[in-house]
Specification:
Two copies of one chain form a homodimer. The first copy, chain A, is an alpha/beta fold. Chain A has an eight-stranded parallel β-barrel with strand order 1-2-3-4-5-6-7-8, surrounded by nine helices. A three-stranded antiparallel beta sheet of chain A has the order 11-12-13, with helices on one face. In chain A, strands 14-15-16 form a three-stranded antiparallel beta sheet. The first copy, chain A, starts with 8 loop residues before the first strand and ends in a 5-residue tail after the last helix. Chain A is 39% helix and 20% strand. Chain A has three domains: 277 residues, TIM Barrel (Alpha-Beta Barrel), CATH 3.20.20.70; 93 residues, no CATH class; 123 residues, Alpha-isopropylmalate synthase LeuA, regulatory domain (Double Stranded RNA Binding Domain, 2-Layer Sandwich), CATH 3.30.160.270. Chain A contains 17 helices and 16 strands. In chain A, helix 12 links the parallel strand 9 and strand 10. In chain A, helix 1 packs antiparallel against helix 11 and helix 15 packs across helix 17. At the A-B interface, helix 4, helix 8, helix 9, helix 10 and strand 9 of A face helix 4, helix 8, helix 9, helix 10 and strand 9 of B. Chains A, B: It holds the Pfam family LeuA_dimer. Chains A, B: It catalyses: pyruvate + acetyl-CoA + H2O = (3R)-citramalate + CoA + H(+). Chains A, B: It comes from Saccharothrix violaceirubra. Chains A, B: Keywords: Acyltransferase, Amino-acid biosynthesis, Branched-chain amino acid biosynthesis, Isoleucine biosynthesis, Transferase.
């Protein structure tokens, strides 16, 4: 619990609304892992899914009830709908499943826009109010805490405020203690939304929550504006995952509430975990982290302009809206064409290399980087290659773990249309000369496979390194000379990620350089043995 | 021009502030292509870069002035700084370079936060005001329209409102006609920002613009809130590209201004082009389009099954905040703007193909494009391949000028470090079977050289086609299956340029497909004989 106790709710719906994002498909074990990470942050409520409607969600709640998921901070929430029109609440199977889930909290979704009640639900407003009141009361009588998600509230309130407000009233009459205003189609903007929230709070005195979708790119802003207008319960998803453009991003909402509005909505020690948890949740969702995400993205505090680097060294606070370490992130200086000594010194500090004591080495590295960048290299996104360059210049590198003698790649587009890529490498490793041949989908894949085959018997860690991403950029600016290819390779060993770069007129050689750097960089790390 | 004329400015800074995004590196030709696309949308101003500070930007303005870039709607803007402290304005080389760029508009960046003036600029406020006034006046006297970007304005105004406001005053005294309040570190939230904008407008009566960064995930919301508070000039970047978390996304800002606030800030016909232009600009930046981007993302109107499915069928307007076609988007998951019948009809017209009379062919092409796009193809930036597909479907294509039997590419990284790429093609052309072998810098270059060598004796126009640009994107979205490579080839015959696409698991085969399309497309043109 935070110092705010129950007076402010951080309510996470990654496992229910977040799972609506195209491409996400959580297993039950994934869901348990997600819930544990969210709980470790100290969110107040974790909406686990819709038991009864989705078999995986039913199983998730069953496993949680059986003790597979013990939460330290959060309360588990089952999501579901009110009873059907014309059905007695205790006879409604879907409502029954919400009880069976055994979660202490239930969030019910209900329609609050008269057009939806009449056109989609095909009933009248009076029956809608009864459905809400009956279902809330039934669950409260069974010992549950109940929140109401008022679907399409803002459009409904604009169209027919009376129906919208009476939906909320019906829930409160039944015993709901938070009514959540949902911008279901995501069409709101902050100033208008804040006005409505303020209006509802003033007219009803109810405890109001907010649930925003990102269809105007304003979900985070709308959530914050709602809090400023009186909402004390925010529904978010990790990394903004959700249907269509997504939901309000938990990390940006929490970052803003804590660092901008001064509301301690999470335990103090949790804020520095935001970046780590965000990336771990991306991992579980099998979605590449958004490098440009506010607060937690790897670029969120990355400065490119060489222009500013010297001023940043004087006082980083002049250029960052918060201290990146507050949210567990770090400032990065991107080394570009405009790189100067100041940016490289800062960069060295990131690697744990103190360059201030080595002015000569610094001069040499700056010169070398300028030469390489003039030839098409770019270290902006290739920290691992830059680190190798720095350490090499400081004579901190041992002999490389392997050296190349030669390679050959053959590509055959055969008469029958079949395509074969085959590579042979000759390398020296562990005092031996090794020759290995392998096939792949393409020339680089074949080369990578042949190299690993050659190294495997001598360097056992080789297979712990996986190629995560591979980017190719053809640099055609150099008119009159041959085009140059720049390859970026992102590797991972399951614990960390690093990026290397290779540049050459030949795309395969450029890829080879980046692949080699990736393995050499891994060989530096203490865990490689 | 829109119906709003000069009274509201959509000001794009993709080419300057957007280029600060980690990973973006525009060539001069890229910059010209970006400017053309933005101009086609009807934005009022295109900030092209910082002439004098960056050689590529200097070249861009020189090429624009030489007639390589003719704008229909927009005015070109040169960005730069005020004169240095203690230097006479007409002796300042950087200011001189702004004039030399020959752009009709200049945007000057100036510090408006006293701490930045004293700590980073190391001068006093009086000299800062003089720097602003002198530089604006000098440029205005030379016939330029001048806008002022007041850097770190919101922090500066909070810290010392007098210095912040007097910076604006100095610009207006010099003759600037818009003062742009910049949230340079991106730390603002909408309600507070709107209050400041309102306050500045009320106190000064100046024409105010807004420039927001996305560090709180509120750049779009902040921009809209500023307009509601009186700003009449919005600075944005395509897809929100920019330093750190990025800038306010042009497409979301425009979408919100037009569809939510009813401000016709772009020509009416442009709105339906937002999605296409957004994707084409992502292609040029070599960044995968964000599928969850508001308005223009491929998922922005994608509904996952469940709760809403049946009701959406009844009335989609109940579930979408706008009609997706308003912004050229569609309601299905894999629908891009190309898959719509209407846009394909329009596209056909561009090629001189009347598809309105061929509804069956249109249906087939739409289906075929959807299948190809599901497999990783993209025709957004490959008009020439799309034209071939359309003509093929209409049976308008003669037999292709050549057919492939097989090819082989061999790459040797030799013992002495030398690298040789050699390709052999076997093709049928002009009734003969031809075998040709050639070398190149890399596998694709060698293949291209061998193909030309084989075709040259039969197709005299082959050498008039030059490869202008070559882009590669690895599509790693398909987890569990092999990654797919998409290659875009831009060709020229000195008169016109055309782009073709190839997709395959093997990069060389993908390149081969795009190269072949490029030559086949040339063979269609009347000038090929």
């Amino acid at each position: 619990m935070t110092t705010l106790g129950d007076s402010f709710h951080v309510y996470d719906t990654t496992l229910r609304d977040g799972a609506q994002r195209e491409g996400i498909s959580y297993s039950v074990s994934d869901k348990i892992a997600v819930a544990r990470l969210l709980d470790s942050l100290g969110v107040g409520f974790i909406e686990g899914g819709w038991p009864g409607a989705l078999p995986k969600d039913t199983e998730f709640f069953a496993r949680a009830a059986a003790g597979d998921l013990t939460l330290k901070h959060a309360q588990l929430v089952a999501f579901g709908a009110t009873r059907k029109a014309g059905v007695k609440v205790h006879e409604d199977q879907q409502v029954r499943a919400l009880l069976d889930a055994q979660a202490p909290v239930v969030t019910l979704v209900a329609k609050s826009d008269r057009r939806h009640i009449e056109l989609a639900l095909k009933t009248d407003v009076a029956e809608n109010f009864a459905m809400v009141r009956d279902t809330v009361k039934f669950l409260v009588d069974e010992g549950r805490r109940v929140f109401l998600d008022a679907e399409h509230f803002f459009d409904g309130f604009a169209f027919d405020p009376d129906t919208a407000l009476r939906t909320l009233e019906s829930a409160v009459e039944g015993g709901a203690d938070v009514v959540v205003l949902c911008d279901t189609n995501g069409g709101q903007l902050p100033l208008g939304l804040a006005e409505t929230v303020h209006d509802v709070v003033a007219r009803t005195g109810f405890r109001v929550g907010i649930h925003c979708q990102d269809d105007t790119s304003c979900a985070v802003a709308n959530t914050i504006a709602a809090v400023q207008a009186g909402a004390t319960h925010v529904q978010c998803t990790a990394n903004g995952y959700g249907e269509r453009a997504g939901n309000a991003d938990l990390f940006a909402v929490v970052g803003n509430l804590v660092t901008k509005l001064g509301l301690p909505v999470l335990p103090t020690e949790s804020l520095a975990e935001l970046t780590r948890v965000s990336h771990a949740l991306a991992e579980i969702a099998n979605i590449a982290p958004d490098s440009h995400q506010a607060y937690v993205g790897s670029s969120a505090f990355a400065h490119k302009a060489g222009l500013h680097a010297s001023a940043i060294k004087v006082d980083p606070e002049l250029y960052n809206h918060i201290d990146p370490e507050t949210v567990g992130n770090g400032m990065r200086v991107l080394v570009t064409e405009m790189a100067g000594r100041a940016s490289l010194e800062l960069k060295g500090r990131e690697f744990g290399i103190d360059l201030t004591r080595r002015p000569d080495a610094l001069t040499n590295v700056v010169r070398k980087i300028k030469e390489l960048e003039a030839a098409g290299w770019s270290f902006e996104a290739a920290d691992a290659s830059l680190e190798l360059l720095l350490r090499d210049e400081l004579s901190e590198l041992d002999a490389p773990p392997f050296t190349l003698e030669s390679y050959r790649v053959v590509l055959d587009h055969q008469k029958d249309g079949g395509i074969v890529s085959e590579a042979t490498v000759k390398v020296h490793v562990g005092g031996e000369r090794v020759i290995a041949t392998a096939e792949g989908n393409g020339p680089v894949h074949a080369l990578d496979a042949a190299l690993r085959k050659a190294l495997r018997p001598h360097l056992s860690w080789v297979d712990s390194v996986e190629l995560n991403d591979y980017k190719v950029r053809i640099l055609t600016d150099q008119h009159g000379t041959d085009a140059v290819t720049r390859v970026l390779v992102e590797s991972t060993d399951g614990e960390r990620e690093w990026t290397t770069v290779g540049v050459h007129g030949n795309i395969v050689e450029a890829s080879w350089l980046a692949l080699c750097d990736a393995l050499v960089h891994k060989s530096l790390s203490p865990s490689q043995a």
